[in-house]
Design brief:
This protein is of the alpha+beta class. It contains five helices and five strands; from the N terminus they run βαααβββαβα. It is globular.
Length: 150
Amino acid sequence: MRVKALGAGDVPAMREMLGVFGRAFGDPATYSANPPDDAYLARLLASDTFMAIAAFAEGGVVGGLTGYVLSKPEQPRAELYIYDLAVEEGHRRKGIATALIVELKRIAAARGAYMIFVQADHGDEAAIHLYTKLGTREDVMHFDILPAED
């Protein structure tokens, strides 16, 4: 298994990662029904505010992590938010998710990030166990607010 931060030239790997997310989350339509073009993904992967880390094994992507760099206004520092993290079912419990987070921690330190944070859903015991092993739990509430309509 090999873990790699993706860049603008890694669009095919990003597409594979989106497939992993769709299968792992049981929501393939969200990750494949309206795919962005290669130029969009290349710009996203080249962005200073987006991160994608892929785990490769057996010739393809078997896990991945995406996240965002959030620059803070109160101090000149940033936090990293893990947005999606998934591993193919047949590759779980082999340390891949941990390896993805370890690579993110290395990148975060190199970028001078203050903190990495992630949320987990109630009932997602695997994610809760992983994040508890690697960090400090805070119980918070999450709200979705729709943008204004015209």
